[in-house]
Amino acid sequence: MNTPLSRSNRTSTNPHPSLNRRQLLQIGGVSMLGLNSFELQQLRANSENDENQSGYQGKHHACVFIFLFGGPSHIDLWDMKPNAPAEVRGDFKPISTKVPGIQICEHLPQLAAQMDKITLLRSMRHRMPVHGPACSEMYTGREYFGPPTTDQATPEDWPSIASLVSRYKNPANQLPPSIVLPLYSQFIGQSKRIAGQSGGRMGDEFDPVVIQCDPSETDFKVPGFQTLPFVDAQRLGQRRNLLQQLQKQHQTIKAGFGLPAKTYSEHVDMAYSMLHQPSFRRALDLQKVPAKRRERYGQTNFGQSLLLARQLIEAGISLVTVNFDHESKHDKRSPLWDTHHDNFAKLKDPLCPLFDQAFSAFIEDLSDSGLLDSTLVVATGEFGRTPKIGQFSQNAMTLKTGRDHWPHAFTTLMAGGGVQGGRVYGRTTDDGGYVADNPVSPADLAATMFHHLGVDTTEQYDDNFQNIRRDICLGKPIIGL
């Protein structure tokens, strides 16, 4: 594996078999920080960075990738067809937006008021009608190659965009380049996450940091970042030094870990930096955010996750992935945006009001704070829904009140990062079923994100399952945004 680790010719002189991974983390005073896959996060920090430095030198470009798991109905929300037959156009009426000539769903009035900052990319398409493969294509920007019906991740997945950013984007002040919140996308009742969200065949040491939390809680605190009264900054620094000494004594920590000691030491450095970086700690403290701002986003997991994402990019994180979460995920027939039944009822309440409030607040807040110019916002699902209500395409559970999966045409919302707002890119056929011009693939969307973040798409990684080096991206940035 082409792992960018510092080289050392030191050999192990004392394996310390009594010290296991958990004990070492506790010595470090971080106890995993409550961050899933934290110990697998590969850091490529410049060792010359001053760990006490706060802020950036130069312009910081960031991206927020908002994933609407389930597949929102594009034809009922942002690509409406009011002149189509009733079985196509559905129950909702279009409304005018702040931009003349652009209309969206009547149940998204706050979003309509922000349309001058948003581009509707109506020509997304791919060929995967099943959640797992479709999610994989959107999370990774690569065509899915595994079993056509699986929804669950495997080590052979393509690496996610988030993991590629973790590897190839130089972090600032030893903070992780990529963070996922408030959870991995996962169907209720399944033991594994949805495909395409890890380092996959590039290696799980490049998994993004995941802050698994519910920031809508009144007394929300990120697990692991509470100050311990018996561990002050001096003592924590001493513990860090102890870990560094242990690392020098043996090259590999084997007890339940299996990663080179240098890699582990870099994890400790990053944890220490996260604990002591003032801007990062402030970003996680939503209690200090003005009450009116928190209320504007809505006191929901999704809304407060977007607020937390805003805080994190301001602190210097390059890519924040926000996975949509809501109690409707417990609906086994139509979880989240997967509206196989009662499509219009579920969109009307709770999905549209929740999304409308949170997303419009996010865009407005980024604009007001000056962050929107340097922050690319991408909001998308894994596919759209069938042109005809009750039309069966993949899932036999689809009822006459629902819409089935449809990857042949769907809409992605984009804003900021140089994207000109108040525009529509691409067009679908009169029934919303197929792309009519300017088709965009998941690979092109990924390339656009990489381009904005300054990640060189000609980079290659070693495929752990095949003796081959692979390009990190096969798409081209979208021209004309």
In short:
The chain has helices spanning 21-27, 74-77, 86-89, 109-113, 131-140, 161-168, 233-249, 261-276, 278-284, 291-297, 301-315, 343-369, 442-453; strands at residues 35-36, 62-67, 94-96, 103-105, 118-124, 178-181, 209-211, 252-253, 259-260, 319-323, 375-380, 384-385, 405-406, 410-415, 423-425, 427-428, 435-437, 460-462, 469-471. The protein is an alpha/beta fold and 481 residues long.
Number of helices: 13
* Helix/sheet category: alpha/beta
The main sheet comes to: 9 strands, mixed
CATH class of the largest domain: Alpha Beta
What does this structure look like?
This protein is an alpha/beta fold and 481 residues long. The protein folds into 2 domains: 17-43 and 232-284, no CATH class; 59-221 and 300-471, Alkaline Phosphatase, subunit A. 29% of the residues lie in helices and 14% in strands. It has 13 helices and 19 strands. The strands form 6 sheets. The protein has a 9-stranded mixed beta sheet with strand order 1-7-6-10-2-11-14-5-15, with helices on both faces. A hairpin with a 6-residue loop joins strand 18 (460-462) and strand 19 (469-471). Residues 1-58 and 250-257 have low confidence and may be disordered.
